[in-house]
Amino acid sequence: MDITPQEVAETLSMVSEQNLDLRTITMGISLAGCADEDMGRMCDKVYDRITHTAERLVETAEDLEAEFGIPIANKRVSVTPIAQIAAGCADEDLSPLAHAMDRAAESLGIDFMGGFSALVQKGMGATDRKLIASVPEALATTERVCSSLNIASTRAGINMDAVLLSAETILECARRTEDIDCYGAAKFVVFANMVEDSPFMAGAVHGSGEADAVINVGVSGPGVMAAALAELPESASLMDVAEKIKKTAFKITRAGELMSREASRRLGVEKGIVDLSLAPTPAAGDSVAKILEIIGVGECGGPGTTCALALLNDAVKKGGVMASSSVGGLSGAFIPVSEDAGMIRAAVDGALSLEKLEAMTCVCSVGLDMIAVPGDTSVETIAGIIADEMAIGVINTKTTAVRLIPAIGRKEGDMLEFGGLFGSAPVMPVNRFAGSVFAHRGGRFPAPLNSLKN
């Protein structure tokens, strides 16, 4: 489908008036061939592979911004999960690989790099355990590196040993970065049904089924969507609302498709996917919560919120798939508390609770994202929150995730300040009745019956 000049003009209006941007252009890079018994040599190979493959990424993105007038908020790289290339090395500490990734990110001028990761949904090998043990040091001593674990899938069930390890890792990441508002925990996420082609951090990895290098683009556009819905009268039916969302999502996604095609062509690498997620920012008006309130919810988190979010998410997907033949990643509506001004307000007002957020994740793209909890929250409580969210993903055959930030030394009602796209995180109350047994049982939550698809 050709992209017309009229579409470009309409998109420029969205940029100037409604905060439209491409949230990220992310180059996925395979590190196959970088494995080595010697840690120093492996780090050199990783650095060289990344910097050589992505050497023109930032330059190309800036050229596209200038030519098409569409801002690209972040330039990023994702790599093969590090645990998959480090198995031949006997070193216990894998954080030097994170340092090599961080140096490469700095050399390239990119914002974030994902892939200090492991896939442990069914079991953990020795290298997986070494990587998990290295995560707190890696994230505390790097600026741009992000880490992720896939600890559950519909096909495998939930690795409950990995759930507890993840909870312990989250707490240690927060403790190691207490002096910078526990920022280390903001760069670590755990998944059920992780995808291989997401451009969004902290969970972007370059999957084993991908080409050597690909370009994945993540669009944004909550401000555009809110402005479009604000044109509807309060008397408009939900069918009318859904139609407006679909048409607007189509327009937003076309901008991402255009930039994806051009970036891929100019860089000489495979065109990957367009992730049509509505990714909010702390900027005024650029809020998924505001969209839900325009649909008719009194305040985000109030009765009707889950239904409104389900409608939004479904209609965004329906509109987006007509705009690109390569829709992928997560694609829907994100609900990161700290990154959405409306979510922050709702949490401070008490309209939005952790339990309501969990209910909302049943119908949205990701999960419990960028949520600050009191610093004295127990590891059993965090493990229980993770397990609950993994169960939602496993049973419903969807991607879910948890990115919690234990606010060490802080209590409910305090605020963590990250700045930039990460915004501000109000410390939210948690249910403290997790008990001391469930998190320590270990073993594996069996794959559900609906995993038997063959």
Automatic annotation (TrEMBL):
UniProt-listed InterPro entries: UPF0210 (IPR007841)
Spell out the SUPFAM superfamilies in the cross-references. PFL-like glycyl radical enzymes
Spell out the family assignment given in the record's similarity comment. Belongs to the UPF0210 family.
The annotated subunit structure for this chain is:
Homodimer.
Report the PANTHER family cross-referenced here: UPF0210 PROTEIN MJ1665, UPF0210 PROTEIN SPR0218
What NCBIfam families does this protein's entry cite?
PRK05313.1 (NF003700)
Q: What is this protein called?
A: UPF0210 protein INF26_05965
Name its species: Thermophilibacter gallinarum
